[in-house]
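Last lecture ended with a question: if I hand you only a sequence, what can you say about the shape of the protein? Today we answer it with a concrete record. The protein is Gamma-butyrolactone biosynthesis protein. Below, first the input exactly as provided, then the predicted structure, then a couple of comments.
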Amino acid sequence: MQSTDAPPLRDTTPEPLAHGGHRLAFMQPVPRNLVHRASVAEVLLTDSARLDDTTFIVAAQWPRDHALYHPDAAGRADPLLFAETIRQMFVYLAHTYLAIPLTHHFIGDALDFSLDDTAPLNVGATPLNVVLDARWTWDASRPPRRYGMRLDVVLSVGGRVCGSGMISGIAVDDRMYALLRHRDARGRTEPGGDTVGVPWVPRHVTPAAVGRLRTKDMVLERDPVDLDWLLRVDTNHAIYFDHPSDHVPVMVALEGFRQLGYLVVNEGLWDSPLVLVSSEVRCLAFGELDQPARLVLEEAAEPTGSASLRRLRVSVHQGGRPFAVGTTVWSRPAGAPEQAGSGERTEPVERAEPGERGDARPGGTRPFIPAQRGRR
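The predicted structure:
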C-alpha cells in the first residue's frame, strides 16, 4: 500500500543574511537549559551569532498555534511570543556568550516590547521565522557574584522591521539570591485568607472575555467581597510554571496585565477587538506565591482621544505595596471597522456562570541599535 503522507515541501525562502554574511538556521531549538525551560516544546530560539563584544543576531521560530500563545481571530501571532522571545534571549546570550554561570539566578527589573508593524506577523502555512538584532549593555556588574545587564532588541520578519524591545536585570549566585529574597520578604503582611497556587474555577468571566481559549489559562479572579481583580497564580500550569519557581514569574504578571487590559478595552467591541501592540513592565519586588495579589487599574486614557487607541496602566499589589507595574497600549487592527464602543457584549461578563468553559477563539536592512545606558 502506498503512503499518502507526503513529506513537507522544502522551504524555498532563503535563510536571512545579516551583518557580514552570517546565516541563521531554524532547524532545531537551542538547548532548553540555556533559556531556562524544562520543556523542549517551549523553546523558541533556534540559532545565533556574535557580531562583536556587545551585538548579536538571534533566530527564533514562533509556532503557527500554541495552547497559550495562540493567534488572534484575525490570524496574527500572539504579541507575548515577542516578550517570551526577549526573555529567552536574555538568559541564552548570558550563558552562551557572556560567561554567566548556569547556576546563577536571573532577576528581571524591566521588560518592554512594541510592535510598530503587525502585518508581517500574520500566521501562514508554516511557522513564523523571526530574526532579532540585539545589543548587550553591562551595568553595575560585580562578577562573579553579581552581573547587571540590559538587552535591546529589534524584531524583523522576512527582512522587514516590525518591532523593538528591551529587558534588564541582574544575575546573582545562590548566596546573594538568598539575601535578596530574605530582604524583599521583610515587611510584608501575612496572607489574608485567599489561596493561590492551586487549580481554580473562575468567577463571573469567560475565557473569551479576556482573550483566552481555555479556562485554565485565565489568571484573573474576582474578589467575592469587594469585586476587585486578583492575579490568579496556578503553580501547576504547564506553561506559566514550566519549572518550579519560588516567586511569581514576570510573564505571569504580564499575562495578568494583558488579560485585564483586554477585558477593559474591549467592552462592547467583540466584533473587532483592540489588540495589544505595546507593553512596559517594571518589576519592583518579588511576587510571593502564598499571598493574594491584587490588580489595580491606575489609569485608563486614550492618547489620541480615539476609541481606536487605548492606554492602560496596571499594577499588582501584595502586602500593601506593588511588586510590578505595567503600561499597555491597545490598537485597532489595520482595516478593522471603527466602533462606537458603547454596545453590549455578545456574552456579558456578569452573565457567565462559575466554571463555564469557553472554546471560541477571542476575538529592508535591519537597523543598527545605538548604545544605551543600562538601568539599575
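Comments.
1. The first strand starts at residue 17 and ends at 18.
2. DSSP finds three helices and 14 strands in the chain.
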